[in-house]
Amino acid sequence: MLGVGHKFPAFSLQATVGLEKGKTFQTISDNDYSGKWKIYFFWPKDFTFVCPTEIAAFGKLNGEFADRDAQVLGGSTDSEFVHLAWRQNHEDLKNLPFPMLADIKRELCTALGILDPQEGVAQRATFIVDPHNVIRYVSVNDLSVGRNPQEVLRVLDALQTDELCPCNWQKGQEVLKPVV
Amino acid sequence: MEKFLESLPEHAKDLKLNLGTVLRQPELTEQQAWGTAVSTAVASRNPRLVEVVQAEAAGHLNEQAIHAAKAAAAVMGMNNIFYRFRHLSTNPKYGDMPARLRMQAIRTHGSDPVDFELWCLAVSAINGCGVCVDSHEHVLRDKGINEETILAAVRIAAVMHALSAVV
Question: What residues of chain A lie within 8 A of the CB of B104, using their CB?
Fold first, then answer.
């Protein structure tokens, strides 16, 4: 499984982005949302019990993530049509403000190392990826355990509060070269 | 701007004349001068001065630069206080404790990084943080900016700060 410091793998996937006819699907790749932080989170199967709660919880915090220049992206190994059906079917998912990635070939989940060996579906993994596409945080829960998006937000905040100002440099320290 | 300058009282005549001069110093590019004017006007806390300077700056700066100049004033308004506390206190422990403050604007302002640094320095001069003045000055010279340019920006800061008290 990929960990902190690894590059997030390249991908190009169909995603379900809305319910409006003609605007339901979109191709999304690792190069989209350049300059932004990304929150990727995966769940095992659409239409199962734990998932909609936490997905809706991520949806509720979408504005908080957006304020922090972060794009939320959910995903599973279900197809984009299954995602659409689920969203049409579930009250809490109708107005979901972020895309649902359809990793139907399991290539992204395989590259990330989060395919469950028994079930063959995505584990409940969460990645915070910085604007340079480097993984800065990973967590994986057992298939049956839901996540706390507030905790993801807290970690993002902590990652973003590095002391970027030269005022912080101590005497004798090398001059930092800020990443432009 | 002209109307504003005319409205300045007689006892502030030096400031009035200085303002015209410092904004046209050959050591500074147009963006450096006007970005410094905007950031130091904001740092000087006089809403009328900010309004006048920003309106005039719109003819000299693109939107991104105006945004970045105001972002420099915003973020340094916080950092100057925080880091000044650290260096004023004789307890060395504070230096080892994390700031835990967001300062993403330093990375995401979207304007020229050297100019942004110069605006941060000018704001630090107003807010009076020695460590910030020293560290930003150091970075600027490291990036090839000479003392003449730096002092030219500080002149703008000084005049802006004085004007804010008489307007």
Answer: 68-69, 160, 164
